[in-house]
Amino acid sequence: MKKSPAEAASPLDPQPEPAAPLSFGLFQREQRSLFGEILDWMLTPLLLLWPLSLALTWFVAQGIASKPYDRALEFNLQALTQFIEVRDHLTQFNLTAQARDLLRADDTDLIFYQVRDQQGTLVSGDPDFPTPDPELRGMPGEVYLRDDVVREEDVRVAYTWVARGLNRDQLVLMQVAETRGKRSKLATEIIKGVMVPQFIILPLAVLLVWLALVRGIRPLNDLEQRIRARKPDDLSPIDNEHVPQEVAPLVSSINDLLERLKSSLNNQKRFLADAAHQLKTPLAGLRMQAEMAQQAAAAEDVHRSLQQIAKSSVRATHTVNQLLALARAESTGRALPAVPVDLAVLVREAVEDSVPRALDQRIDLGYEGPDEVPRSCLLPGNPTLLSELVRNLVDNAINYTPSGGVVTARVLVDPFSGVQVLQVEDNGPGVPDNERELVLEPFYRALGTNVDGSGLGLAIVQEIAQQHGATLELEDTHPGRAQQRGLRVSVRFGQRADQAGL
User: Fold this and answer.
1) pLDDT score of 281 more than 60
2) Dihedral of CA 244/245/250/251: which sign?
3) Which of 130, 238, 258, 330 has the most CB atoms within 10 Å of its CB?
4) Which residue blocks in 296-382 are alpha helix, DSSP H?
5) How is residue 233 annotated by DSSP?
6) What CATH number was assigned to the domain covering residues 248-328?
7) 145-170: per-residue pLDDT in tens?
8) Is residue 85 helix, strand or coil?
9) Which residue blocks in 81-180 are alpha helix, DSSP H?
C-alpha cells in the first residue's frame, strides 16, 4: 500500500539537510564566503563585458578599416569623372587604356563602374550596377557613399553627379564600386591585434584581482588567528589599531560584548560567593544542632535541638528559594513570554496567602485598591515574576514590622494614562536615606535589625521591576518619626498590554 508523504516521514528517519545558499555570481558554493562573493562580483562583470568589448571592437574596426579605402574610392571616382564629355548633347566616356589597367590592378577586390546620362541611359560600364534613388539626387560634384550589391557581391559604392555641357546643364551620374575584401581583411587584422592581447591581459587581470583580494583579506585572517590564540578566560578587549576601517565597528561590537560578558561573569562569581556564604550559616547551624541532639541525654534537650533544626531548615529553604528567584529573574526573565496581567489580582492573592503569617505576628495586613484592574489597563509582563515581586515586598514588610504594626498593600490605577503603581508600606524602622541604594544590592542588610533574612528580597524586586520597565522608589511612610519612620516601596508601571501589542 502506498503511503502518503506525511505517513512516510518518520521522526526516526534521517532528515534531509537544508539546501545550501547559492551565490549570485558565475560560481556556486555550499558555504557563503565573503572572499568568494567579492571575487564573483568582480570577475562576473569582467567575463560578461569581454565578449561585448569584442563586438564593439569589431564595429569600430569596420569603421576604421573603411575610412582609407573610402578615400581611395573617392579618389578613383574623381579621376574617372575627368573622362566624361558632353558633345552636341551626347554624353561620352573616353576611358584610356592606362585608366582601364588601373581599375584592374587590384588583385584582391573587383572594381565596377557605370556612367549614365541625364536621361538615365547607360553610357558605359556595368549594366547591372544599381542606380541610386532619383529623388535623392545630390549636389553636382559632391561625392556620396553607400553599401550595395553588384553581381551578388557586397560592394562599397562612391557616386556623384557631374555637370557637363557648354552651360553645364547636363548632369551625368558616375558610380564606382569596390568589393569589401580588403576592408574585411584589415578589420580582421585589427580584431586579431586586439583579441590576442586580451587573451593575455584577461587571465593576468583575474590573477591580479585574486592576489589583491588575498592581500586585502589578510588582516581578517590575522584577526581570526589572534582571536583563536586567546585563552578561554581572556576577556580583555581586542586591539583594533591594526584592523581595517570596515572591520573596526565589528571589533568594537565584539569588545562591547566581551565587556558585558566579563561583567556578567563577575556578577555570577560574586553571586555564587555570596550564596555560599549565606548558606554556610544555616547549614552549620543544622550540623551543630544535629550533633547536640546526638549527645543530649534528656528528651527535652533532644526536642529543643529538633526545634532549632526545623527553624534552621526553614531559614535555609527560604534562602535557597530567594536565590533561585533572583537567578530566574536575572537569567530567564527577558526570554519568558509577556501576557496581559491583572496586578490587582496578584496583590490580593499575595496578601491572602500572607494573612496566617501576619496573624501569628499580630500584624494588621490589609489591601487597598480595586478587586480587578480594568481590561484596558492590564500590564504586559510575566505573571510568575510579577507574583514573585509582590510576594517579596509583602514578605519583606512583614519581616521588618514589629508586633502590633500595620502593613498595607495598595494598587493605584490611572485609567487615562494606564499608569499603575504598586505600594507596600509598613510602620517598621524604615531604611535610612544613605542606605536606600545599598539595600537594593543582593545580600545587603541594614544594620541594627534583628530580623532573620538573606538580604535578597529588594534585590529580586529591583531586577523584576527593571525587566518590566518599571521604576522602584523607597520613601518613609511616616516622615519625622524617629522610632517608627516606616518604609513605603512604590513600583510604577507605565505601559499597558494594549500599548505593547498584546
Assistant:
1) no
2) positive
3) 330
4) 299-331, 343-360
5) T
6) 1.10.287.130
7) 988 998 888 889 999 988 887 777 78
8) strand
9) 97-103
Query: Rounded to an integer, what distance in angstroms lies between the CA atom of residue 496 and that of residue 418?
Result: 6
CA 199 to chain centre: 39
CA dihedral over 268, 270, 271, 275, signed as positive or negative: positive
- Residues pairing with 420 in the sheet: 413, 493
> Residue 146's beta-bridge partner residues?
157
CA distance 41 to 254: 28
Q: Where are the domains of the chain?
A: 19-229, 248-328, 336-493
Quote the cell numbers at residue 479.
516622615
Q: What is the pLDDT of residues 235-271, one digit of tens each?
A: 888 887 777 888 888 888 888 988 888 887 876 776 6
133: which 3 cell numbers?
534613388
**Cα gap 365→60, rounded to integer Å:** 99
Nearest to 174 by CA among 78, 273, 40: 78
C-alpha cell of 333? 526573565
pLDDT digits (tens, 9 = 90+) for 69-112: 888 888 888 888 888 888 877 888 888 777 777 677 677 788 88
Which CATH fold topology does 336-493 show?
Heat Shock Protein 90 (3.30.565)
Return the bridge partners of 149, or none.
154
pLDDT, residue 452, reads 57
Q: What pTM was computed for the model?
A: 0.46
Residue 283 pLDDT: 72
Reduced to 3 states (helix: H, G, I; strand: E, B; else coil), residue 406 is: strand
What percent of the chain has a predicted confidence (pLDDT) above 70?
79
C-alpha cell at 20: 545550501
Helix extents (H) in 91-180 = 97-103
Separation CA 33–CA 38 (nearest Å): 9
Beta strands in 21-169 (DSSP E): 84-87, 90-93, 111-116, 122-125, 144-150, 153-164
Alpha helices in 229-298 (DSSP H): 248-295
